[in-house]
Amino acid sequence: MWLTLLTLRRGLSTGRPPRGPSRPPLPSPLPPEPPRDLAVPNGGWSEAMRRHYQRLLAMAAGGAWARLPSYRRARHHGAAVGTPGLGGVTGGRTPPLPPLGDTRLFLRAIEGDGNGFEYAMFLNAAERRLLCLVQPGPYLEGHPGLTHGGAIATIIDSALGTCALAVAGPVVTANLSIDYLA
């Protein structure tokens, strides 16, 4: 079912007539804007986060590791990570993309520095490894002061997916099972 929805979103036809009333046209695309790399220190980062980030940047200066930029919208993010086309999903065709409007990557949907997922990823493609530095914001809490387990699973899924996309090509998460222990 998920692939069917993805295929329809990408503008391919299923060969069946549309069901129900016709949809209004999609909003026109946003005017081009220079994307802001969100994987760099900002006012929401703690001192410990900045310290670890500087340590990882120094490690990346050696050349084996690379800091991955992170953007709010998928059209900027995929190109930055080096994601190949959707050949595995669309049979080698690259379908035309519909206007995106104000679509956002889930991890970058929360406005305000420090309120949601603050993270930076560093990739070593030769070793097929990714390091993800994360600082969860207050909008990700379950109980006060505790990060919600779903938010933790989300960042793990995103880090695994980013690594897989960079070293193996297009993938989707078929199953992610996490057991939390107290």
TrEMBL record:
Chain ranges of the Thioesterase domain: 145-182
Entry's Gene Ontology molecular function annotations: hydrolase activity
Region of interest (Disordered), residue spans: 10-43
Superkingdom of the source species: Eukaryota
Bilayer topology annotation: Peripheral membrane protein
Catalytic EC class: hydrolase
Gene Ontology cellular component list: mitochondrial inner membrane; mitochondrial intermembrane space; ruffle membrane
Record field: compositional bias (Pro residues): 18-33
UniProt key word Cell membrane: yes
UniProt main location, coarse: membrane
Protein name stated in the entry: Acyl-coenzyme A thioesterase THEM4
Record organism: Calidris pygmaea (Spoon-billed sandpiper)
Subcellular location as annotated: Cell projection, Ruffle membrane; Cytoplasm; Mitochondrion inner membrane; Mitochondrion intermembrane space
Keywords, in A-Z order: Apoptosis, Cell membrane, Cell projection, Cytoplasm, Fatty acid metabolism, Hydrolase, Lipid metabolism, Membrane, Mitochondrion, Mitochondrion inner membrane, Transit peptide
